[in-house]
Each structure stands twice: as structure tokens, then as C-alpha cells.
Write a structure and sequence with these properties.
single chain; mainly beta; eight-stranded mixed beta sheet
Length: 336
């Protein structure tokens, strides 16, 4: 069955997926990856109407050989939440805004967010199984310039993201491919889908077209009456979501401050140090994520602004790091 969508529980966000059912491999033959069948609203993502080819049969689901097939745009790669939203110890005692910022103590989440799904706009039949679907998905993206895909997934500590994968006319396109390597003694890599953003020639790093949104879903064990708050604090969250979020609408020019994200059934691997060198007034200057198999090692979100009316430049940095004892710690620099 479909897991509850965290996006439907926070700030009116609604998931574009309408899953009829989901299947998850628990035998590890497909390395805990799965598939979902249902309608995905790609008009919401690409802001255009795709002409879907007519099916040869009245039913989009068919039997070919021993496999059940469906039109590829109805079948999505599916995995459990890719990053563990673990409890975090907030060691910052000087609170800038006692109403919106997390208070000192143990911060925790009710769940790990929404499952990861990778959808596509293809019209060819594909088996409803994770191994052949992942192979076809990456093959079509590489060989068909008109083929497009997109995904919804989680980032560390209460952050949701949506990324688009389309071949660009100038050749500067995001990557979508399988990681396949073999090693001695019959060792091989697990099923992993590698995604790399397109090149940002201004900041000399990478990004994905899409959106990212920080949720206010963090609770404090020491102060339960304080309610749900954002891990990034009130003002930093407002700046971040205004720049990258898509609550009130989806802009084709929006992007995710993320360089690379690898999907797997064992959790995501993320190595991304995104920097905006030109950030000035109420903009995000850094967004860094290091994640190993679903466990966050390091997160940095930094914003810049000015103090009105004297035009004093200030910067504020939220840092979450994993200590030598294994616990994640949160530090808020405040405005400096």
C-alpha cells in the first residue's frame, strides 16, 4: 500500500502521484527497490500537454510472455524514504526568534518523509518490475531526445525535492544512468540510479531544474508545547523556500540547489556542495549535503541578507554535523 505522503500534511502541498498500488522488493534480488503503478501529473511538472499515443489494446495493462506490462508513463520506480530524518541535538542556546526557531534540546521527526519515486513521460510498454524498468528508463533517456523523466525525493532533515531530467538542446543536460561495476570474487554494485545535475556556468557547479522545500515538521522533546518548527529556523526557511520552493506554483526556471543524488533501495548517497557566489539580498549562498546510504554526515545551509536601512551585510549559517559518537548536532550561527 502507498505510504502517507508527508507533503500532504505540511503547508497544503499535494503530491503529484496517484498510486493505484506499490510493490517493494524485499528479497534483495532488486536490492529493495520497487515499482508503483498509477497516474502521475506530469503537466504539473513540465507545464505542457504531452500527446499520449493510443494503446493498441483498450487496457493499458497487458501480458507479454510471462510479464505484466503497462505504458511506461504509468509505471514509476519506487523506494522507501531515501534519507533517515534522525533526531538531532540542537546545541544553540542563543535563539534569534523564540516563536519560529528550534529551541535547544533534542529535535525529532514523526517519520522519514515520503517515498522516492521516479516517473517518466514515455508511451512504450514496460514490465512492471524494478530491474527491467530501471534499465529501460536509463536507456530511453540516453537514446531518445524527447524522453523526459522526473522524481520526487527527500533531502536531509525535513526537506522535500523534485527534479526534472530532460535532454537540453545545447547539450548541457542532467545525467540519469545506472551505476554498474563488477569486482573480483563475484562482487558487483547494487541497483543504483545515478542522477547528476546540469552544469551551472555562472557558479561552476551543478543544479537540477525543479524545486526544494523545507518543511516545518521538527518537534522538541524538551519543549513539546512549542509545536512543529523548521530545522533551518524561521527566517532561513522563509528565504530558502521563497527561492527554491513551489508551494504556490511551479516555475519552469526554478531549480534545486543540488549537484548529485544517487537512488538505491538501501538509502540515498548524496555528495553535493552547491554554492551561489552571487548571493546578496535574502538569498541562499550555500546548500551542502553529504549523505552515505541514507545517513546524513553533514548539512550546511547558509543565507545572506542586509540590515535595513544601513545596508550592513549579514550572513547566517545552519550547520548539522555527525559527531564522533554518532549523534547529529545542530548549530545556528545567528546573523553575523
Amino acid at each position: 500500500s502507498t505510504l502517507p505522503q508527508v507533503s500532504q500534511m505540511n503547508e497544503g502541498m499535494v503530491s503529484p502521484f496517484k498510486n493505484a498500488f506499490t510493490l517493494l522488493d524485499v528479497s534483495t534480488n532488486a536490492d529493495l527497490m520497487g515499482v508503483s503503478l498509477g497516474i502521475s501529473n506530469d503537466r504539473f511538472i513540465f507545464r505542457k500537454t504531452h500527446e499520449v499515443q493510443q494503446e493498441t489494446n483498450a487496457n493499458p495493462i497487458s501480458i507479454i510472455g510471462m510479464d505484466v506490462h503497462a505504458t511506461s508513463r504509468l509505471v514509476q520506480m519506487y523506494a522507501l524514504p531515501q534519507i533517515s530524518w534522525e533526531p538531532v541535538v540542537n546545541i544553540t542556546t542563543e535563539i534569534t526568534n523564540v516563536v519560529l526557531d528550534p529551541l535547544p534540546g533534542l529535535l525529532y521527526f514523526m517519520n522519514d518523509g515520503m517515498p522516492a519515486q521516479i516517473a517518466n513521460i514515455g508511451t512504450k510498454p514496460v514490465p512492471i518490475a524494478p530491474l527491467p524498468l530501471s534499465k529501460k528508463l536509463t536507456e530511453w533517456y540516453k537514446t531518445d531526445p524527447a524522453f523526459g523523466a522526473w522524481s520526487m525525493f527527500t533531502l536531509p532533515y525535513g526537506m522535500l525535492a523534485l527534479a526534472k531530467y530532460q535532454q537540453q538542446a545545447d547539450g548541457n543536460s542532467p545525467q540519469l544512468e545506472l551505476i554498474k561495476h563488477s569486482f573480483p570474487n563475484a562482487l558487483r554494485t547494487a541497483l543504483q540510479i545515478k542522477t547528476v545535475g546540469l552544469q551551472d556556468n555562472i557558479n561552476h557547479n551543478r543544479k537540477f531544474f525543479g524545486s526544494a522545500h523545507q518543511l516545518s515538521n521538527t518537534y522538541n522533546l524538551n519543549f513539546p508545547a512549542s509545536g512543529a518548527r523548521s530545522m533551518l529556523s524561521g527566517t532561513v526557511t522563509e528565504i530558502f523556500n521563497r527561492e527554491f520552493g513551489a508551494v504556490s506554483g511551479f516555475d519552469l526556471d526554478m531549480y534545486v540547489p543540488l549537484e548529485r543524488y544517487d537512488f538505491s533501495g538501501y538509502g540515498a548517497n548524496v555528495f553535493s556542495h552547491w554554492v551561489n557566489q552571487n548571493a546578496a539580498l535574502a538569498q541562499t549562498s550555500q546548500a551542502m549535503f553529504d549523505v552515505w546510504r541514507g545517513r546524513t554526515a553533514h548539512e550546511v545551509v547558509q543565507v545572506k541578507s542586509v540590515i535595513y536601512p544601513w545596508a550592513i551585510r549579514v550572513v547566517r549559517t545552519i550547520t548539522i554535523y555527525r559527531g564522533s559518537n554518532g549523534f547529529p548536532w545542530r548549530v545556528d550561527s545567528g546573523w553575523k
